[in-house]
Prior knowledge:
By secondary structure, the protein is mainly alpha-helical. Helix content is 66%, strand content 0%. The chain has 21 helices and no strands. It is globular.
Amino acid sequence: MRRAFLSLSVIMLLCGAATGARANIYGCDEQAYSCRHKIALLGRQRDEMFRLDEKAAKDGDPEAQYNLASDYKTGAGTQPNMGEAIKWYKKASAQGFFMADRELGFIYAIGLGVRKDFRESARWLKRAAKAGEPMSQAVLGTMYENGTVLARDLDTAFALYQAAAKKGDRLALYHLGRCYEQGLGTAPDAAEAMKDYQTASTLGFVPADTAVGGMFEKGEGVTANESLAASWYDRAARAGDGDALYRLGLYYDAGRGGLKQDGKKAVEYWEQAADANQHEAQFALAKAYIEGRNVPQDYSKAHRLLAPAGLSGDSAPAAALLAKLFERGLGDAKSPFDAYFWYTIAAYIDPRYEGRREALGDTLPPSRKALAEHTAAPYLAAIPRYKLKRADAKDSPEK
């Protein structure tokens, strides 16, 4: 992340005001790299800032090496060059500048100028987290919670969220609230969950607004109040949060939370949520298109909505409903092969669909059945195991 602008009062405290350095309006020694860099930064003199960063970085200053890497990453005073950015972040890291470890973790997670590599990302984030960098602790916590990159360890995830939350990291506060709400790595505590969600909300973390709305809807940690829930959902929906858009659609569909029942408005919110890849909204909207409720009946649109919801692992019913459409030839040609493929996805997530899968599989030639299972295999492998409702969904042994 690009270094933040600092107020003059903070600069005076951090720079040479206490060292007897020559005074200026910045309160620091103009001969020092750190002071000259801040002056250029505050003055938005990017070319000068890059020149200063480059000279000091080549002289071995780790902060300058980090700043130079950021210049190359963002194109500040030079052309963007991720190869140079990574090189200088690694030089800064080698000297113990842990912010560089964080940036490298994010670069490998995103695949910015390199092949995306979550294991390499985790390696760098562990270094930064060990040094106490809060954003790295929060992101590493999600890796331990999900169990997709690292072996699932809810105790470690909770400890990382807690450490980062104490430093005011809003992502960590949100996830710490989830831990307390759901009893992940700690005993459930609705009041503590509500407090953490509200703190994250005050820091501008939009998903926390949706979470606060959920607490008011369920009456957990607070007195149930659907009007307040609707207000919080509306606040988050205006910022584009998919979960809030979905929940607000449910409220309009049923006329809850003091909102007038309006099926068409519900569909509008679900369409926005579906565009944001919110899988429950995709399922709800697909059902509306199948039933022709508040929208013209359109099985083809239902197909397009159900596929991403089913493959996500979040909605076995979406996969099963798509299987049924293929089974009956609604919206596409009748295809027992495709139906079996989607029942395989559904049954992997939720074993309650196993019976229908087996019954349909008995009608297929063995070669077609095997091909459908082979086609489904990579999609099944991509579904995080914590999402499965299966008794055999053990944690990954990978470290």
